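INFO batch 0412 | record 1 of 1 | parsing
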Amino acid sequence: MTEKQSESEKAALSKGKSSPNLLMKMENIDKYFGKVCALKGVDFEVKHSEILGLVGDNGAGKSTLIKILSGFHLADRGEIYFENKKIKLNTPKDAKKLGIETVYQEQALAPHVSISRNVFMGREPTRGLGFINKKMMDDNSLDVLAKIGLRLKDPEAVVETLSGGQRQGVAIARVLYFKAKLVILDEPTIALSIKESQQVMDFIKQLKAEGISVVFITHNLYHAFQIAERFIVLSHGERLTDVDREDTSIEHLSQIIISGKHEKK
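INFO prediction complete | emitting tokens
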């Protein structure tokens, strides 16, 4: 919880209620895998139209936390609120219905099929007699790609022929088209060139411009620091700090991650 939150906001949070500027809140989350504690008492909040950097070393608990928010894992303890309502996420379908979409680092794209098929994968529009409306898919896929600044000409181009940055663009366009409210990006710039990474960060800025909140999970603090407005640091399943970008630095965040110690207020 940041220093700048109002007293009424802090009071609301302490009672398990969302304040008006919060889109989502996870409160006191525990998760065990057998005897291994993956998360211990984690609080995690995302504001409306915010880009949040979720950072920490390998094994910090980032993936486990996000898989709970995505409906892949059930928390052993804790509560989740979305748009001021307490929710239960039993499956990924539950998360998607709320507008929570996750783009994993492997992108979950089908490399051997077209751009338009990837944008609409599993949600293909149909016409009479159940036939797929291919023209609608082709036209709308190019439109939504252009909306994030990716101007491709051929919706029939096979995804494996695209650059790494363009592939991420297709994955991001898909969640934009289907009206996501919260997009979780898992290492979206990993293994990309400098130019491609910048392209992906431009895509993320466009999501914010569309009013969509973004959780940017990354090991690359230099990338995150360019676009994230706030940072949450996890280590060994615990939250170490929650700090606005203007109140921190790359060096400061690195020190917290390396030390693995809670930041003193």
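INFO post-check: The radius of gyration is 19 Å.
INFO record closed
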